[in-house]
Amino acid sequence: MVLALGGIFAQGGAEKLDIGLAMPETHVERWQRDGAALLDAATKLGYTAEVAYGDADQSKQNQQIQDFITKGAKLIVIGSVNEGVTSVVSDAAADGVIVIAYDRLITGSKDYDYYITFDNFKVGQFQGLAIEKALGLKTASSADPKYITLFAGSPTDNNANFFFDGAMSVLRPYAESGVVKLVGPAPLDSKSPDFTRIATENWRADVAKTRMENLLGNDAINVTLDAVLAPNDTLARAIIEALMTDEKYNSIDKLPVVTGQDGEIASIQYIRDGKQYMTVFKDTRELAAAAINLADALLKGESPNIPGARLDEKSYDTGKKIVKSYLFEPVNVTKDNYKEIMIDSGYYTEEDIK
Ligand code: BGC
Q1: Given pLDDT bands bounded at 50, 70 and 90, which one contains residue 15?
Q2: According to the model, what pLDDT value does residue 44 have?
């Protein structure tokens, strides 16, 4: 698959633009797939569309969104970097441009009505359940506790709260009963002040790797970790890399259980090889196609019908209003089912995983 990297890609000439597609970054693989799939779906419905990647820089993304508005876009799909996007969302609304929040809720704004994403709490639950199962927490006792260290995603990404709270909905009772000992900062939910200490600025792998290295030399120096809660694949692999430099974990059979998310190619290989325990697959093809269906309905003034999605009109509060949200189901992936989920579904080829 050829992925569009960085910059802006036009389809069908720059004079007239129907739909702008603003993706947050390319350093996490999925966004390139989202961008490509959104562009493809929009073009297939006969719209002119462009995709831009913000390189995890909100001012850069705001400029890209301004450009879309200037080019006459009627609708903009935004996977935002952080809440700094609200100023351009208001500009769009003032110009009558529809905004759809894509994958990440745009908090602090009253200027849009629709959000389309996966059930992000469930993503975290899968991660928590995987650790519960792998460590046998149901039958473990506080006399022989399990050692877990916690990582979360970007503190400016609303999804990071959902992932963490979903995972902790499973792990928290074990931490409270002493069956699990949390190593390092130990927030029990995303509202805890300690949450920022486990969060990873802009989902950067180097930040997670350095934090893991520091933990190994400090809080984790006198214990052997049984699991690391890692919020996505990019960070999981950085954490595994750090772990493998420590002689306690320097071979595959000695590594702790490490969770992930996104089903990135390199992590599927890690899962096959036993280095990473699991990932959570969110089919970007499905999300992108649905976002463009939603866009199409809104542009035509029709009421949206999004097959496969659950409509939630209560839960997603931007802080200024509740937006209508369409949620898709994530899928739990381990060594047992990765072939079926990631390859038989046509998402990757056998060759990709080699
Ligand atoms: C997405 C994840 C992704 C992360 C980092 C989150 O908002 O939901 O799929 O791994 O951002 O890009």
Answers
A1: low
A2: 97
Q: Give dist(CA 311, CA 161) in Å, integer.
A: 21
Report how far ligand 1's centroid is from the alpha carbon of 223 (Å): 30
Q: What pLDDT does residue 16 have?
A: 87
How long is the chain?
Answer: 354
DSSP state of 304: P
C-alpha of residue 231 to centroid of ligand 1, in Å: 9
Q: What angle do CA 176, 181, 186 make, to 5 degrees?
A: 75
- H helices of the chain, in order, are 30-44, 58-70, 86-94, 120-134, 158-177, 195-198, 205-217, 233-244, 265-273, 284-299, 338, 350-353
Please say whether the beta carbons of 65 and 78 come within 8 A. Answer: yes
Instruction: Calculate how far, in angstroms, residue 334's C-alpha sits from the geometric centre of ligand 1.
Output: 19
β partners of residue 182: 148
At 165-216, the pLDDT tens digits run: 999 999 999 999 999 999 999 999 999 999 999 999 999 999 999 999 999 9
Q: From the CB of 204, is ligand 1 less than 6 Å away?
A: no
Mutual angle of helices 233-244 and 205-217, in 10-degree steps: 40
Strand partners, 14: none
CA dist 67 to 25, 47, 50, 64, 280, Å? 17, 17, 11, 5, 34
The pLDDT of 11-27, averaged and rounded, is 83
How many angstroms separate the alpha carbon of residue 182 from the centre of ligand 1?
A: 24
| Nearest to 200, CA basis, from 176, 233, 247 | 233
pTM of the model: 0.95
All residues at 6 or more sequence positions from 48 whose CB lies less than 8 Å from its CB, including other chains: 10, 11, 12, 13, 16, 17, 18, 19
Residue with tokens 């996007």: 85
3-state secondary structure at position 161: helix
Would you state the structure tokens that stand for residue 136, as one six-digit string? 């046998």
pLDDT higher than 70, residue 281: yes
Ligand 1 near 262 CB (within 6 A): yes
Cα(310)–Cα(122) distance, integer angstroms: 13
